[in-house]
Specification:
Elements (H helix, E strand, L loop, with lengths): L2 E6 L5 H15 L3 E6 L13 E7 L11 H7 L8 E8 L8 H11 L4 E2 L4 E4 L4 H18 L1
Parallel strand pairs: 1-2, 1-3, 3-4, 4-5, 4-6
Helix pairs in contact: 1-4
């Protein structure tokens, strides 16, 4: 059985909910799924996974959340060739740099040699019905890319 690992950072609970929605979608597609909060995870944890997902919020004007900075920096040193990755997260359209941390993680994953399996999903604050459908399609796209 393929394994999907999701690492998330959440301050208000919105991004944790996004991670849980993606995890449930993976489970419904027949994958074993592990979800970890970023302070209890290490990028090397992705070595065991077939699909690697980071769900993060963006703090203020485009900053990475403090609690995920070390994970972010260490991710670039991993060799994840043969893995499929995807990024999602929450932000607030009030700020100019909406969900910038999601894009920052996209650039970090590119350095690992992993293959992008889905377009980034960005949620304004909390996930609504439309966002849930996008997150389910995101998970499906990642599984399809896995083959």
């Amino acid at each position: 059985m393929a394994l999907a690992k999701i690492v998330y950072a959440s301050m208000t609970g919105n991004t944790e909910e996004i991670a849980d929605i993606v995890a449930e979608a993976f489970e419904n597609l027949g994958l074993e799924t592990q979800v970890s909060e970023c302070t209890t995870a290490d990028p090397s944890d992705f070595e065991d996974a077939d699909i690697c997902v980071v769900a993060t919020y963006t703090y203020g004007d485009g900053e990475l959340p403090d609690e995920i900075v070390d994970f972010y920096e260490d991710l670039a040193d991993e060799n994840l060739e043969g893995k499929i990755y995807g990024n999602c997260g929450s932000g607030d359209t009030f700020y100019d740099e909406f969900c910038k941390s999601v894009d920052d993680f996209d650039a970090q994953f590119e350095k690992t040699g992993a293959t992008k399996g889905a377009e980034n999903v960005k949620v304004d604050l909390a996930a609504d019905e439309e966002d849930i459908k996008k997150l389910e399609a995101f998970a499906k796209s990642l599984v399809e890319k896995l083959g």
